[in-house]
């Protein structure tokens, strides 16, 4: 499939999706978002791909929404368009998504990053939700996911001032996994993806679902969901392969069955 604003590469069971509007720091226009979701849903159905890396370039993962698309809009047309409904489809991708980010990760770019499951950032990364400086607020999950990630008081500070934080600050607040030199951020994301791609695919999916379940349910319900997933995996061929390989002191070869 041909895209205008993203690039796609498949390597060693890893789908690499690159945002590609470098002339505007990968600003997220509607077409880019639709292309991205279309490709993520295609990857979701491709059994040869086990992990996804989402990245941009060294200057910007994504510097925010494309303001030129919204500047002249009014409330009712925006409501009827419901441009954020497509974002909900990203959260339904069951394969793990690793964000490899650098440079500007602002506004919609920050919201897109927070839709990912793990985040590797370069030391030049600057993260923020500056929508308030434009007279608006986040609309693709910024107030919700940021608060769950960094806590109320830090989220309030970032959202109400619009100020950016550094990668080191984001690491301290638990927003990202790791900070590395700029020349290493994609390599580190690839290393993590390669490690996950060797794991049993069904178990990977059920672990992701169970972790996400912790955010929208009670502890008791979450534990019940986890246990059901645990028992379900005992019907898989990969469970047999994994345990037999352990007992035989060899590396397992997981097939996703």
From TrEMBL:
<dbReference type="InterPro" id="IPR001753">
    <property type="entry name" value="Enoyl-CoA_hydra/iso"/>
</dbReference>
<protein>
    <submittedName>
        <fullName>Enoyl-CoA hydratase-related protein</fullName>
    </submittedName>
</protein>
<dbReference type="InterPro" id="IPR029045">
    <property type="entry name" value="ClpP/crotonase-like_dom_sf"/>
</dbReference>
<dbReference type="InterPro" id="IPR018376">
    <property type="entry name" value="Enoyl-CoA_hyd/isom_CS"/>
</dbReference>
<dbReference type="Pfam" id="PF00378">
    <property type="entry name" value="ECH_1"/>
</dbReference>
<dbReference type="InterPro" id="IPR014748">
    <property type="entry name" value="Enoyl-CoA_hydra_C"/>
</dbReference>
<comment type="similarity">
    <text>Belongs to the enoyl-CoA hydratase/isomerase family.</text>
</comment>
<keyword id="KW-0456">Lyase</keyword>
């Amino acid at each position: 499939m041909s895209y205008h604003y993203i690039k796609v590469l498949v390597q060693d069971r890893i789908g690499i999706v690159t945002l590609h509007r470098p002339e505007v720091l990968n600003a997220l226009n509607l077409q880019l978002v639709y292309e991205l979701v279309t490709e993520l849903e295609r990857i979701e159905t491709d059994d040869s791909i086990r992990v996804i890396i989402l990245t941009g370039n060294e200057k910007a993962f994504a510097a925010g929404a494309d303001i030129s698309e919204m500047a002249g809009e009014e409330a009712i047309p925006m409501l009827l368009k419901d441009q954020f409904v497509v974002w909900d489809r990203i959260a339904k991708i069951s394969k793990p998504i690793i964000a490899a980010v650098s440079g500007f990760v602002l506004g919609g770019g920050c919201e897109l990053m927070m839709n990912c499951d793990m985040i590797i950032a370069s030391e030049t990364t600057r993260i923020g939700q500056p929508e308030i400086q434009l007279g608006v607020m986040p609309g693709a999950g910024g107030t919700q996911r940021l608060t769950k990630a960094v806590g109320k008081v830090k989220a309030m500070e970032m959202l109400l001032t619009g100020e950016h934080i550094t990668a080191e600050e984001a690491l301290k607040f638990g927003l990202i996994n790791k900070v590395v030199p700029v020349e290493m951020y994609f390599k580190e994301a690839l290393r993590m993806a390669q490690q996950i791609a060797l794991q049993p695919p069904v178990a990977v999916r059920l672990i992701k679902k169970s972790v996400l379940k912790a955010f929208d349910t009670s502890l008791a319900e979450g534990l019940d969901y986890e246990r059901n997933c645990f028992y379900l995996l005992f019907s898989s061929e990969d469970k047999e392969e994994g345990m037999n390989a352990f007992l035989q002191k060899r590396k397992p070869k997981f097939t996703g069955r």
